[in-house]
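Appendix B. One record, verbatim.
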Amino acid sequence: MDGPFILSLGSINADFQVRVDEPLESGRTLIASDFSRPGGGKTANVAFLARRLGVPACLLGRVGDDDLCEQALAPLCATEVDLRHVTTARGCPTAVSMIAVSSDGKKSILLATNANDAWDEDAIRDTVDAITGAPDGSALSSSRKPMPSGQHDTPASSSSRDVASTRDATALRDPASSPDAAPPGDPSPASNGIEPAPHSPTGPSASSAPVIHDALFFDDLCPIDGAGPTCLAFDHFDPDDERRRESLFSLGNGILLTRAAAPEERASTHHYPGTYRAGCYDRLASEVEGEPVQLESLVNLPSWLPLTFRVKGERAWFSLHHVEILVYRHTLDMEAGLVTRDITFRDLAGRSTRLREQRLVSMAQHHLAALQIELTPLDWQGTLEIRSALEGDVENTNVQRFKRYDNRHLDVITREARNPDILVLGARTRQSHIHIALASRTRAFPPSPWCGAAARDLHQDDTSIAEHLQCDVAPEHPVRIEKIVALFTSRDPAISEPTEAALLAARGAPDFDALRAAHVATWARLWARACITLERPDHARATRFHTFHLLQTASPHTPQFDVGFPARGWQEAYHGHIFWDELFLFPYLDLRFPELSRAFLHYRTRRLDEARLSARQHGYDGAMFPWRSASTGREETPRFQLNLLSGRWMNDPTRLQRHIGAAIAYNLWNYFNATGDTDFLADHGAELLIEIARFWASIAHLDATTGRYEIRGVIGPDEYHNAYPGAASPGFDNNAYTNLMAVWTLCRALEVFDHLPVARGKELRDILRLGDDELARWDRISRRMRLVFHRDPEHGDGLLSQFEGFERLKPLDPRAFAERHPEGRVDWVLEAMGDTADAYQVTKQADVIMLFYLLPCGELTDLVNRLGYELTDDQGRRTLAYYLARLSHESSLSKVACAGALARIDPAASWDYFQQALRNDLDRAHSKSACEGLHLGAFAGTTDIVQRHYLGIRPQTRGIRLDPAIPEQLGCVRFAFQYHRDHFEVTTHGTTLTLRASPENRAALKIVNRTRLELLRPGDTADFESA
């Protein structure tokens, strides 16, 4: 190796792994399954994963002179790890790790260290020489933790680190020192914990050396050689992880979404083949705690996926659970929007077959989805029987805690065969009466007499329709089956009837290859607008994954439909409801897809009358939007939530999160800043903003004793606190986030008339009966809202209180609590113990911290000063430190908010939180509920951190505020964006941001960079230094 590389020193193991249904206990014999013999060892894993990321790596360690050394080294050889300095301990066996993985994923491990502890002088000398001769800029990873045998270090580790320190070499943390690290024998640690290389005054800087800086390793997901950051894959089949993988690799086009379930499998413990249509909700009645409840849920639609096969004459259809898997790779190509499975298997009869499956949900024609299977017998011939079906016997059962509700939303109304190769199935939702129609076309290639119309055998029951066709096959001669499906609903525009529309689309659809070509071309055009390019492969892969799923949920097709942005995507988590998560998405959309931001704002404006009605019913003025919304805009927050630990229903008063209105106003204002869309503001936006401001003015009441306005009985973003301990009713007084965002909204509503044509402003005031007295009251409230501050022994005085009385709650250390109670969420654990999170100073997610995330420090300070209070930089730091110590981070949004809030105040902590935010759902340890739906708000937040917090791009009404705070570890960033319909490109190099204006822009851009004001004319380029 010519350039710098990673030297990984430590354990090399031969692993023996099995799966068991129960944890191991002394004196018991358990039946095991899924025996495997991978390689392992903590530092062997570091080298292995470094090579996966394309970083040169050299392994330093010991193996025995036995056949087990080949098992231990085989995966390292395959990834081209340099093994020249792996030495052999004569007369000593290779280290062996015996691992039993229980059904809950926990591992019991027995480790015989053997050759790992058998170091002699020659081996130590060879290791030291390897480190001494390594090129400048290389990095050493070695074990510093006690070995299971009780030894605290090996002579080689100690000597090697001594040598490294004399060379100013980078010392890397042992992966086991990370709380997320895998135990010995796990080939894929979740977190490497590699520290940044320091800058050397004479040697190359960290940025120039190919060393992984705090690299992200996502569980058993692996990059694809040569594919860059655009592909992810699983290289082994894991039944217990299938539901999460189905969610991670789900495909959608903004209107339809289908989980990546294997087409041969039905819903079961391990699989869940769900298909969903944006905004297709149904409301059903159930009974909880003896009370009737109604719940509107996104509906799991009839499954179009079923496509399987068997050898003629056999009873069982193909399933991976019943064959020996020889080769397995499940790949998501994010650039092309394709999912592929490549499998070679041996069945119970000893026949070997190669299977390649590829699927898409068309981004070019949003009613179409397609599946192609290619089967190649390797050592046999015969006749294949193929089954293709449409199945309507589906329920909403993917979320365990929702299973006590009525989950059967569909009645099947039509099953028929049309033409030689088309099946049709129709269904209707039980309450909303939405008609759903699917039409499928299944064909085999090359054509065979067995595949003709006469050979098709039709099967149907009350809820499904299937066809069986046959194909003759021979060794090494592939047969290809393709299934094209069209899905329409009665909510689709420009159709007469869903069944006829689906039939026409299925008949006229091109073949799979042509459909794929159009789909891939559409994705290419989408990525040209959407991509944020990061230099580091691990970051690029994570942000590409996040952006990919955002675009599958909010696509150019979305504005055709009346839908919002679902917090967990178009899946069953949170019943597919709309919360406040677009707050994190709008900064990304505003500068790339403003038509999507506008569409999501229209989702709110169409429900303005419902919000007005809700406000009146609660005794308020203006518009009170629901915390959870679905089809009509009424409040959809369930009144109860099931605690899976205690089995009891818990009251859920989170509908009192009135701050949702401020989030809508914030999104509207920032959309207007980024686009200058005065037409939307005049026609819809101003009215929306005014009615939200009216609500805030009516919920704020004057305390005559203090002369301050107060907002009582609300819940902030932190959902662990629903009521004061012992209180008869839920809600808190003077939540800082709610009060300040209410003031922010009132200020924008007072300002909005400055941006409207005079005639429209007057007209709007007349229509809404908005007089001078009401505007004057808004101004008074915006200057006299109450904030509460308190003192803490550790963090001093002047701390902004989350709500009045927060500091009087009992202390609780969330980290220590999690160590004592790893079984679940803090609120669930406490309720199961007969206690409540309401009584403690512990927060689920960022609450006060959200103010620092949303509002630049200067804007937050100005807002507090407007109220007659003071918030100094020191107060802000101490306030953040106070709440960070009380934060459990049990919301996916929490670390996003912390990364943004700390970007300028504590860059090192911000970077750490950003790293953790990138792991959301990708890393198995950070994706407890990803199988139910992905955390799209957090995905959007990572793009916002890069764009708005690190690069400091903040659109204003007349120009852009540019205040970069670029972490050194971020590397080069590049993307394009638009502002007021003009186009720009931004690039970073180190801590310098370069902004280039398109020569075709219509006007110069005003840029405010701290105290510097600059005009960027069309075709010009300007550089800005990071703070």
